[in-house]
Amino acid sequence: MKKNQLNYIAIAAFVVIAIYACSGIPKFAENIVKPDARKQYSREIESKHVKSDWELAYDSALTENLSVTLPYGEKGTFNPLENLVYTYNVGLQEGEMLSVEVVQENPNQRVFIEILELDSGGYHSVGKSEMGQNKLEAAGENSGIFKVIVQPETGVSGNFFLSLNKKPLYGFPVAGKGNSAIQSFWGQDRDGGKRSHEGVDIFAKKGTPVVAVSDGFVSRTGDHGIGGKQVWLRTGIFGKSVYYAHLDEIAVESGNSVKAGDTLGFVGNTGNAKGGAHHLHFGIYSGYGAVNPLPFIYRTASVSQKSFPRNFSKNVAVVKMQKAILRQGPSKEFEKVGELVSGQTVTLLGQTKDWLHVQTDSGAKAFLHASLVRG
What we know:
The protein is mostly beta strands. It contains five helices and 27 strands. The longest helix has 21 residues.
């Protein structure tokens, strides 16, 4: 019995070592041992009081619920006397990536950026900036609410511009084309309402190259059914299946590995598109069925510093109207979260167009229309 037990232990140990050596476990283990940039910096802070305040400011940011609409830009000034954290809730669709960047007057001053995704268990991190980086991009697995946290190191001063932009996860599937070529969308009725459109149609001249939107491999090709000549691209072992249909010609074979931008075929009107306008039917499928492909490929303009003024030179503003409404976001469409009266002061955290990002004397953060205060 003891001999058998020793044999089992030896076999188990061998399996564990083999898995450890042949997989990404060493890197995973290294990431567990190595603290993230924010924690590394926290260990550098010598004063226990300063360290505690800095960490508590982050914890408090997790409970804040200010919301903004993407794309978003804000100009402000870091105050070395204030231990402030900037946090925003944003909505993302499956297929969109969030890009956060902080541009500072002094690039040597550090900021720590984190993106968290909200699920049934609360917020969990989907991305953290590395030490010394002022930009972070991350995406969640599903559509939902994401929280952005931007925390400067202690004692930081100077002006900054914060931008929150969204990007599609994939490249555009038709060479030389863009958003305007998409003329039929997800969910529209087909065959008199018997089925719905599980994709988008991108119109282009016959023979226009159709390209891989991501690195991957061709899982299958063929000429059959309503899709006619078609290519299926797999974006990874646990990735998505990307469907290209109505092709005029196919340029790849099943099993081919491809890079983003490689030609897979050419726009046509085969299958049930025969006789109609030449276009690509583009679809995306996951393990639970078809998903709306539009967010994966649709491009939106990014914000620019030039479009965001900063009209206040001081860090404090005074309410000049009889009543000033505080809102959850920088628009009258956002929920009212408070109210101030004439003479009350607010700390200015930043400005986004005609709205101010402020903190009240009680410590609450909100947005306030710039016309309601003087500074």
